[in-house]
Design a protein that fits this description.
207 residues, alpha/beta, TIM Barrel, eight-stranded parallel barrel, 8 strands, 37% helix, binds ligand LCLJCK34, binds 4-methyl-5-hydroxyethylthiazole phosphate, binds magnesium ion
Length: 207
């Protein structure tokens, strides 16, 4: 497995500003989440920095890496474990030089094996594909086929699946080769966040 990102499992992504942010992330970790992403599309820099630092401290106490969505500078300022970059969010080389050799740099590859190949070669620590199912969080996201997970096995970096994933449909993506299932609404929109995370964690047979 890749040096900077180990293992497999549930990758939870936060669902925007909420007063109980730390509490629900703690519940997701208690339920078995193995990776956390802070995703907040607001422009409230002070709150975003404070929340990133607080989440980083929480995740570190549990040995779970904490990744910042979109924002290399926020990840650097907060001492986060890494950053997730989509096609409009900056490049892997710039992120590596800002965050250092130990940082986890993840990239969105949508439905493109070619993009995954080139970004893995540029130093990405994981490649994410999706959306695999209709996403309540991002209804206009383009769709990807599970075949991509099989086809990307040879890249040698962990593969993340995202988009409309639930405990009922996630197993098929793990069978196709996903190392991590990245989930927003089916965890953070659930009435019992810990129980929802536990259902996902149980999908990974050897965990
Ligand atoms: C793990 C993971 N995969 C994909 C995305 C989507 O990134 P992006 O395309 O930049 O879209 P936004 O999340 O920024 O709206 C992600 N965040 N995490
Ligand atoms: C950020 C993102 N990129 C593709 S789908 C998606 C949202 C995933 O959220 P959900 O798990 O609620 O479908
Ligand atoms: Mg983005």
């Amino acid at each position: 497995m890749h040096a900077r990102l180990r293992g497999r499992g549930l990758y939870v992504i936060t669902d925007g500003p909420r007063p109980d942010l730390l509490d629900v992330v703690a519940q997701a970790i208690a339920g078995g989440a193995r990776l956390v992403q802070y995703r907040d599309k607001t422009t409230d820099g002070a709150r975003r920095l404070a929340e990133t630092m607080a989440l980083q401290a929480l995740c570190a106490r549990h040995g779970v890496p904490m990744i910042v969505n979109d924002d290399i500078e926020l990840a650097r300022a907060a001492g986060a474990d890494g950053v997730h970059l989509g096609e409009d969010d900056g490049d892997v080389v710039a992120a590596r030089s800002a965050l250092g050799p130990q940082a986890i740099i993840g990239v969105s590859c949508y439905d493109s094996l070619e993009r995954a190949r080139s970004l893995a070669a540029a130093g990405a620590d994981y490649v994410a594909f999706g959306a695999f199912f209709p996403s309540p969080t991002k209804p206009n996201a383009g769709r990807a086929a599970p075949e991509l997970l099989r086809q990307s096995a040879a890249l040698g970096v962990p593969r993340v699946a995202i988009g409309g994933i639930t405990p009922d449909n996630g197993g098929s993506l793990i069978e196709a080769g996903a190392d991590f299932l990245a989930v927003i609404s089916a965890v953070f929109g659930a009435p019992d966040v810990q129980a929802a995370a536990e259902r996902f964690a149980r999908l990974f047979p050897s965990l």
